[in-house]
Amino acid sequence: MDTEVTLRVDGVEHQLTVDTRTTLLDALRERLGNTSPKKGCDHGQCGACTVLLDGQRVNSCLALAVAHDGGEIVTAAGLATDGLHPVQRAFIDHDAFQCGYCTPGQIVSAVAMLAEAAAGRPSTVTFDTPGDGPNGGPVDLAVDPDEIRERMSGNLCRCAAYANMVPAIQEVAGS
Ligand code: FES
Ligand code: FES
């Protein structure tokens, strides 16, 4: 069954008719030609398709477009507004990618993760209470690479470029 949806993607509103089974990832890539989010596993395991949906990071391969009518979506491409986003710049400066296939998802996830940590949202692993950092202290991503690894653990990299992603994210966290 087809239905009408309105999606605002990287600041531009689109109205389209989609089959109700169409994922947000397929709507973005196949219908709107936005190939920034990548299709890796297509079932929620790799994070290559990560986008911001109404400010939250989601795996767009697991979201149905019809369920997010009126949604505000930001892809990695849309993060660059007035020049590169600081996370994009840091990934370049730290050579934090190899083939680049996972990179848009990694960058979107890092942007969201930094905002989550700044808002005091705990990661999935709590080291202690009441704080989420080691020994119950506050999270300081600039000096806590383990916390970054945990918070980024939904994004896989086949090239294993993790070693340079962590300092890239630490740099932004500390700026
Ligand atoms: Fe969506 Fe892998 S393509 S999580
Ligand atoms: Fe190749 Fe991550 S840079 S998959």
From TrEMBL:
Keywords: Iron, Metal-binding, Oxidoreductase
Organism: Micromonospora andamanensis
Entry keyword Iron-sulfur: no
Domain 2Fe-2S ferredoxin-type residues, every copy: 3-79
Keyword Mitochondrion in annotation: no
SUPFAM superfamilies per UniProt: 2Fe-2S ferredoxin-like (SSF54292), CO dehydrogenase ISP C-domain like (SSF47741)
Protein name: Oxidoreductase
PROSITE patterns for this protein: 2FE2S_FER_1, 2FE2S_FER_2
Cited Gene3D superfamilies: 3.10.20.30, [2Fe-2S]-binding domain
